[in-house]
Amino acid sequence: MSAGVRTLVSPAVLARPRGKAVYWTVFTGVVLLFTLAFLFPVYWMVTGAMKSPDEVARTPPTLVPESWSTAGYGDARELMQLPTHLWNTVVQAAGAWIFQLVFCTAAAYALSKLRPAFGGLILGGILATLMVPAQALVVPKYLTVADLGLLNDPLAIWLPAVANAFNLYLLKRFFDQLPKDVLEAAEIDGAGKLRTLWSIVLPMSRPVLGVVSIFALVAVWQDFLWPLMVFSDTDKQPISVALVQLSQNIQLTVLIAAMVIASIPMVALFLVFQRHIIAGISAGSTKG
Fold this sequence. Notes:
The chain is an all-alpha fold. It is about 70% helix and about 0% strand.
């Protein structure tokens, strides 16, 4: 072992059979404990939808359903019109993601590489918006959307999502760390600013673009207050609002099943892109 490196268990202890057994026992126990802590709520929700209404409300609760039934999932799909509201959510989240990715990337690239006049002042003003509580902006945003006639329109979700100071700053910090020699080589080869952005900067920025994409999609998917205000038409509401609006006369098992179905897209998205998410988060602390 190199000098200056410290560990909780010394190599001498690990070399002994007893030390190795204790180490792996503790390690396995910790991993199982954390796995149980994270996965048990998911198990409880999934199996709760498979119980009868009487069983799910029973005290003390049952760990395993007495009779397994998937009828709750079918009822949730039909009674709560989940396909319609899930599609509404996909449209709203996809549009907000595209708008935010295009405009935040362009603004971050301009502030980082084009060095506009008063760029530092502009960035400071953008970051100052992070100090304003989101609730304080709800009324001005609603009045603006209403004046533009965008109520019950996906643009009411897409346009406000563009103004995301955190994602813009995250992109700018990443662009600041890109190797200057690569960009200078592209400029010597005759690439313009737009060509450099498209052919050099964006391919090198895939990790942070993945993180920004996840943040943008999750923010729209889980938002409740703003869609509730701008979508009075029930058929155009996203899943987050529909689950509350349509849950008044719905059995608890059906509501739980609806929540399970509503959470599947975001869980699947994380599982598919988790490598890019972790790479993007770690890339922010490493200079290129």
